Amino acid sequence: MKKFSGFSVFYLAIVFAILYAPIFYLIYYSFNSGGNMHHFENFTFKWYKELFHDTRLLIIVLNTIIIALLSAAISTVIGVFGAISISMFQKKQIRNSILSLNNVLIVSPDVIIGASFLIFFTILGIKLGFLSVLLSHIAFCIPIVVIMVLPKLQEMSPSLIDAALDLGAGWREVLAKVIFPYISSGIYAGFFMALTYSLDDFAVTFFVTGNGFTTLSVEIYSLARRGIALNINALSALLFLLTLLLVIGYYMIIQRANKRTAMGVKK
User: Fold this and answer.
1) Radius of gyration of the chain from Cα atoms?
2) pLDDT tens digit sequence for 82-99
3) What's the CA gap between 95 and 142, in Å, rounded?
4) 55-266: which CATH architecture?
């Protein structure tokens, strides 16, 4: 057993080394004064200074964050009520059919989704830009939220809702005081997953961006095609740090939500 656990630790160490080595490689050379990723000359913050003096890139970062926050918030609201509606269907076949339709955007290739949105917006006459990117991000984030929230709803005993209704509570009170507190960890998980997917998306966004508006993933792609620039490394390092902070914040919120749920069950 000890040999097996030792092998597991060694195996995980190799996996994590493979996953994180490219990231740390980028971060390491973001401090290189030489301007290349082949030979490290001297330690410098030059590329970070250049990054913060690039007004256009900072505006793109701001656009990306705004799109991510808005799409995550709107898709979380829609996805939570969608998951509640799906869970209330009594017939299993209908529930599974609707859930299968919900999963189409998750399993479909991003290229197909992006091309479909492009054709859809073109037919409707919607100008490609902020609105088209926001709508497309909301659309592919909703199924993610539903998937994250639905298991928490399935864990909840129907007797909790029945008891609240028997005590005279209306559906608004049931939602606010019974359902939402119980599934809060799933709601937080759905929001953070939607936020991550929106920040990270390239393929769909590439199809629906227009002239004058772009997001960070599309901009990094266009910058990388021109050649190696270490300000991209600096930007990648800051994004990695932001992601790390989001993950830590997510786990702290989930732990608090689970503690509150456990205390509510004990009461």
Assistant:
1) 23
2) 998 888 887 778 888 888
3) 17
4) Orthogonal Bundle (1.10)
